Amino acid sequence: MTALVYVILYAGILGFLAGTLARAISYARQPLHLRWELYPVPHEEPERVRHGGSYFETSDWWTRPLRFNRLTELKFTLEEMLLLKGLWQFNRKLWYRSFPFHFGLYLIAGALAALVVAALVAPPLASLAAVLGKLGAALAIAGALGLLWRRLRDPNLKNYTVPGDVFNLAFFLAAFSLLGAGLLTRPGGAPGALEITRGLVRFDTSLQIPGLVAAGLILSSLLVIYIPMTHMAHYVAKYFTYHAIRWDDLPAAHAAELQKKFAEYLTYRPHWSAPHIASGGSKTWAEIATTNPFEGAKR
Fold first, then answer.
1. pTM of the model
2. Judgement on whether residues 145 and 284 belong to the same structural domain of the protein
């Protein structure tokens, strides 16, 4: 039984990493998205960010080298990722439910990292891992319950809620509750989180993992494999949404690769039926873009 639990745990880790990598590659290979070009953009100089300006304010900007402030961009990214700053500003009611859930997940991830280090070289870190794990699980469960309740009860979310949304939150609740219950109610002398982590690292099959804990570990492993396969992979998509859509204001004149992609896209033959396009797959984007759609309408 213990060996099976270890195998499933390793499969969960590898499945999560592979799924995340596959998602990132898929997003990176997508065609260029329509830029938002809404300012301020965080990688502008701080004085421009303050008044919502951009490098377009500089005379002859196309002849000057571009400078990006990566420190300001990193600060914005961390605030959005860790604190859900945008949600706090624009949907405070949802933030009170979403922030505990997400921050709880971060604490659980920190607890797992501390457990691995404790199992390998620094046993005292196990105490920190225990605190982070318990607090993270409590926040994640409370947040998931709050989000689930709002999904089910808020009429404003009715059109945006599908069975998969409910299932995802229920999956988190079941996995965390089962594992937490197993660790808290395990018999005296039964291995805890540190011993199980050490056994996993060493593949020590002599360790006797209690049944409820084993069930919680298996369900949690299935959860982490499942996450990258769903829209919960927004932890990957968000990077591309910001860097490739909201913040991408690189001039084509400064990017040979960008020019190459534009040239390729202009050869595509859209099959849209919209009258203002009037292509039917016979015209390229270049031909459509250089044709006045009103000329045909006048005849």
1. 0.86
2. no
